Amino acid sequence: MKINFYGAARRVTGTKHLITTEQGTKILLDCGLFQGINTQDLNQNLGFSAKDIDVVILSHAHIDHAGLLPRLVRQGYRGPIYCTPPTADLCNIMLLDSAFIQQKDLERINERRRRKGDAVLELLYDENDVRQTLELFVTVGYHEDFWLNRDEVKVRFTDTGHILGSAAVHLTIKEQGVEKQVTFSGDVGRPNDKILRSPEPFPQAQVIICESTYGNRVHEPEPDMKAHLLRIVRDTCVTRGGKLIIPAFAVDRTQELIYALDQLENEGLLPRLKVFIDSPLAIKATSIMRKHDEYFNPDIVEYIEKDGDAFNFPNLHYISDVEQSKAINNLKEPCVIISASGMAEAGRIKHHIKNNILDPDSTILLVGYCSPDSLGAALKRGQPEVKIFGETYQVRARVEVMDSFSAHADYTELIQFLKCQDPTQVKALFLVHGEYENQVEFKARLEAEGFRNVEIPAQGEGFFL
């Protein structure tokens, strides 16, 4: 058996891990889009032949894990794509949205390349590729074992609590009559998530591929979350009369924010001001969340029974229309604007940031992970100037960060996630989906927990097991 790492290797985005069994079965774990600046070549070339892949197993719907599936299909893949039911529903909206963004972004990128005399880039995929991709999805629930081919590879999904339908992938691979257990963590959520269930224990594995996004970080204490959000809302919108701009992933993060604001409204604490969810994708994702409330934790289920809807309250406005979105920029009164994407790399949020970044009374609130080369990360680092749509802007708006909204486990929570394993039985542990410096620190912590043979694979690197 061999594992090759074609994405999320010493970086966070573009997850693609290829397992080749002794019998030659090629299993691709996720097929994610690389996000951020200067990732065009990585997205154009998968690093392997799409036609050679036998099966794809998808951990969850985030674009950095699912966003190149249509590219895979465009290049000839026609096999099944296994995932949980909510993941399929979310991909149905997210991949179409991604195709639209690819086309718009490519027009701007190729215009710049033409001016420089560089060759133009090929479109990664279009809506037709997405529709062909969606036809290949096969849904399987948590804890339902299924075989890939002639009793060679058995698969099971378990809940990781990262986003709706997110799963760790557990493979039982038979080689020469001996079963080998391989686990891919996907992305691991946080214990006591406000909407989803906590990550669950998983069967003993000999090989683990584990995310390490926050391998060197500990999140701020959870009890401060609502109070922290309320303080920022009051300071920005009431005291200074500015706008609060929140880049947020359309799936899970936006719903967490709405739920927190809904609770503050019910408690009589939320100031009377307009809250805009300016993202067609987030609106569709919220509907899917409502549809799959059987994946929610007991606390929010009880809240919904009393409140009726955790994602709706007075003065909350869902905006789909482009003209309505533009009209928000002309609004003179203070308000809260929540819009995708979470890294501020695409979508309407870039326009809202551009239109408010020079206003010292406004605040840009970052509520999740941002890849180092993204606009969100530049703002997090406190850069005095940033580029938006190719133009340089001084950062005069305030920038705040709230890590308590992160859907990624920190290093203490990742270690807790791995506590269900006997380290002496784990023969290899690969760290992926993290920046290299963070991974080096996390590797040392895992070794202190008794894990041996902890590897940090480089892009394209392969390992025989």
Automatic annotation (TrEMBL):
<dbReference type="InterPro" id="IPR050698">
    <property type="entry name" value="MBL"/>
</dbReference>
<dbReference type="InterPro" id="IPR036866">
    <property type="entry name" value="RibonucZ/Hydroxyglut_hydro"/>
</dbReference>
<keyword id="KW-0378">Hydrolase</keyword>
<dbReference type="InterPro" id="IPR001279">
    <property type="entry name" value="Metallo-B-lactamas"/>
</dbReference>
<dbReference type="Pfam" id="PF00753">
    <property type="entry name" value="Lactamase_B"/>
</dbReference>
<feature type="domain" description="Beta-Casp">
    <location>
        <begin position="254"/>
        <end position="379"/>
    </location>
</feature>
<protein>
    <submittedName>
        <fullName>MBL fold metallo-hydrolase</fullName>
    </submittedName>
</protein>
<dbReference type="GO" id="GO:0016787">
    <property type="term" value="F:hydrolase activity"/>
</dbReference>
<dbReference type="InterPro" id="IPR011108">
    <property type="entry name" value="RMMBL"/>
</dbReference>
<dbReference type="GO" id="GO:0004521">
    <property type="term" value="F:RNA endonuclease activity"/>
</dbReference>
<dbReference type="Pfam" id="PF10996">
    <property type="entry name" value="Beta-Casp"/>
</dbReference>
<dbReference type="InterPro" id="IPR022712">
    <property type="entry name" value="Beta_Casp"/>
</dbReference>
<feature type="domain" description="Metallo-beta-lactamase">
    <location>
        <begin position="13"/>
        <end position="228"/>
    </location>
</feature>
<dbReference type="Pfam" id="PF07521">
    <property type="entry name" value="RMMBL"/>
</dbReference>
